[in-house]
UniProtKB/TrEMBL annotation:
The keyword Coiled coil applies. The keyword Glycoprotein does not apply. InterPro entries: Snapin/Pallidin/Snn1 (IPR028119). Residues 1-33 are annotated as: Disordered. Residues 46-73 form a coiled coil. Transmembrane segments: none annotated. This is Uncharacterized protein. Keywords: Coiled coil. One of its GO terms (cellular component) is transport vesicle. It comes from Anopheles coluzzii. It holds the Pfam family Snapin_Pallidin.
């Protein structure tokens, strides 16, 4: 009885093992096809958008450089303006002091 049951189990195990291998092969093939599709779509998207994205990148670099130059110029102008104001205030204080001194005499 054990041998008969054992004999029946072997074909069942073989069938299950074969089905498992087929499923595994099928899944593997599906994954491979999926990966190839993704690669093809990615390559197509890059081919379409990469030139424009490179152009945008270069334009952004140029814009950032111009912004930096403008910021430096504005800072320099602000410092010069502040220096002139300080100088004007110093001149007014000096004149006021001179006027007070002359008025005292």
């Amino acid at each position: 009885l054990y041998n008969q049951q054992h004999n029946y189990d072997i074909p069942g195990q073989l069938l299950q093992s074969t089905m498992s291998e087929e499923t595994s092969d099928s899944e593997s093939q599906d994954i491979q096809e999926h990966n190839e599709t993704i690669r093809a779509l990615s390559a197509g998207l890059l081919q379409i958008y990469e030139p424009k994205l490179r152009e945008v990148k270069e334009n952004l670099k140029e814009l950032i450089n111009k912004q930096n130059d403008l910021q430096i110029a504005m800072t320099s102008e602000k410092n010069a303006f502040s220096s002139r104001q300080i100088q004007e205030v110093n001149e007014m204080v000096s004149m006021s002091f001179l006027a007070v001194c002359l008025a005292s005499v």
